[in-house]
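Help needed: design a sequence for this.
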């Protein structure tokens, strides 16, 4: 069963291990960079902190007037840009908020890889069409849906709070939090697919147990 399970779980098993290694390497590199002072992670580091206001573009006459430029007759000017604020001497709360703008997504990916690793292990040890595999699929499906929304909301809230520490004009809470319609379509489709397959595998496992009991 172990050999068969390993063959059936390829290439998911190899891809999970590769991405898991990349996540660990990223965490190690970020930690070393922060301690050296060139980055920031959980309040560590001595470098500057910057944040870009998401989903906001500034264009048109507002900026052309400040730049002192105008279009020739028959021409038009388009200036598209985003607001980016930085501080060379960030406080500890600002460093923590900067870390929170990036790490929720990384942690969500790490959790997905961990659940995939458990799913692969269950398929190798018990077989692909068993209750443990169905349970692993169900957990993974729900986490993809809820974890994606939680990570995006945490990123948006931290970005919003950090902008408020760097700008005089108050950025209303929730402005940087992404809309559900912008976050959920792909995770919802992937999660629904996994939950459906979990039900199919669980039903197949129950039918197999009934057949074995009858024989």
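Sure. Designed sequence:
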């Amino acid at each position: 069963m172990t050999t068969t399970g390993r063959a059936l779980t390829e290439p998911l098993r190899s891809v999970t291990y590769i991405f898991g290694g990349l996540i660990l390497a990223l965490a190690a590199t970020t930690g070393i960079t922060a301690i050296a002072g060139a980055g920031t992670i959980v309040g560590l580091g001595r470098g500057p902190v910057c944040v870009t206001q998401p989903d906001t573009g500034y264009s048109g006459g507002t900026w052309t007037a400040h730049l002192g430029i105008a279009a020739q007759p028959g021409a038009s000017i388009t200036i598209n840009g985003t607001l980016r604020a930085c501080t060379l001497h960030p406080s500890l709360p600002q460093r923590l908020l900067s870390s929170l703008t990036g790490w929720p997504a990384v942690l969500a990916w790490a959790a997905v890889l961990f659940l995939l690793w458990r799913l692969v292990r269950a398929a190798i040890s018990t077989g692909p069409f068993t209750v443990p595999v169905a349970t692993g699929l169900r957990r993974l499906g729900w986490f993809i849906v809820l974890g994606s929304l939680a990570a995006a909301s945490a990123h948006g809230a931290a970005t919003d709070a950090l902008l408020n520490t760097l700008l005089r004009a108050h950025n209303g809470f929730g402005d940087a939090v992404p809309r559900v319609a912008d976050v959920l379509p792909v995770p919802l489709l992937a999660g629904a697919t996994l939950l459906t397959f979990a039900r199919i595998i669980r039903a197949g496992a129950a039918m197999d147990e009934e057949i074995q009991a009858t024989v």
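The CA atoms of residues 157 and 174 lie 7 Å apart.
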